[in-house]
Amino acid sequence: MLEYLVNQFNEFDYFFYFFRHYTLISKQWNTEILPKLRIVDYYIDIYEDTDPIDIQILSNLTNRFKLKYRIRISDYNLKIDNLKDKVHYLKLYKDFFTASDSETLSNYKYLKKIKQLQISPFIDSEVLSNFASSNKGIRISLDGDGNSDKPIISGLFNLNILHSLIFSNGVIPNDTVFQLNGISKLSLTSIYSQLDTICRLFENTPNLEKLCLFGISLEKCQYFDDVLKKITHLQQLKELLLGVRYACNFQSIVYLLNNVKSVNTDVTFHMVHYESVEDVLSSKINNSNIHTFDFSSPLKFTPKADELNNFNLLSIWDDKSHLQHICVKRKTNLLVDLPTSIYSLKTKKTLKTHVIFKTYSCLLEVIIDNRLINLTEINIDDLRATDLKIILNSQMPKLTTVKVLDLNDYDGLNEGFIQTIQNNHTVTNLFIFHLTWFQQYSFYETAIQVLKVNNTLVSLYLPYYKNDEVTQQYIDSFKEIFINNHTIRRIYIPLSDSKSPKLLLDLFRLFNRYSISRNT
Questions:
Q1: I need a surface site. Which of 322, 413, 460, 480 has the fewest CB within 10 A?
Q2: Domain of life here (predicted)?
């Protein structure tokens, strides 16, 4: 359990207070339990304003127990000598990289990743390349935004040392030479270029694992079909996020989805041409590579046809047995054929996660009646409290996360609804972001009522309104909860103006003392 708690969040404050708290319990803990803790694969962020004394204390504590963990810092706080051997990730905010920087960073012998967050004429590509050549174990990422300087752009796409490149709001010249054989992540947003230039780019990025393309503007409004075909040639691709606003043919989309190698795929097309309605409806998609797909992303056909108003790619997806995580976004009048689609997923043993967006009572009946025992997460934009009670009372064995954007009911979070949350034993993460009717609602009273009984929740997000003031009684109630409830780790309380700032600070200190995160 302790190892689960230490791995919940990557904030320095949480990590710091965790060890300050648990090292005070007993000598037996310090000798038998804490040294065995494993910190999983994430970075602990240390910011410019992090107290140096806290850094020193944490260093002493973790060295004492010989704990292995990784730190992410920025160039504003490079001088943390006592934790230098823990630094694995560096963010560079300044717009240049000099020989002096190279010398400084060479002292960080465990540094594995550098992200340059500014691209400007002051960057010395030769210095950066030499540094990378001398430190081959370090992955370098660049983030360029709004650059129109041709030498800079040419340099961006000619750095074969890059692991990741993010480029947005710019132009890729037609004569750009691409040398990005080593790059594994590429993100292009709001870019203007020619069709053959974008195609040449993908011919020179054979090792791409993640590709994000949004808002690419092609010269002379060319069709996007050739780009889609080039994407299918990326043999290492694992994740594809694609938003195309220029014209393409429906059969090119089908070809992409039948041949792309990406496991996680999310595509949106805003101008889809087609030969006939029959051609669309008779098409088939079979791709065992795709495990995650967002069926809520729209296909906007040109010209419009009544027969295609309700069209969804799910209807032509032939073999659904490989799908593990899907998103469905449907209006109430489009739910007629959804039960069959869900049932075909439900019967496959490979289904692990099914996320359903924007749904209503009729869809909930489908979920429960078909006994989707592998359902792990439900994410709904708009729901009545009575329907949420149905979900929570169903006690689906693997359902661990429920998120509701707007909870609509005049009764809202009444006593009966709170009792339903109290008695649920499967959901560990409950998020209710907004109440339509909140006149009789109190964040503090509701959270306290729930957590006094429910010992399953790890994360709880309830709506918070400014008229809700903390009191000493609420603080005492939370203290009693934290003493008896060792499961809850995150309660979302925003920083807000308070008539009692001292009480609010006391509450935050209480949260820190028991390693409860209050991040929003």
A1: 480
A2: Eukaryota
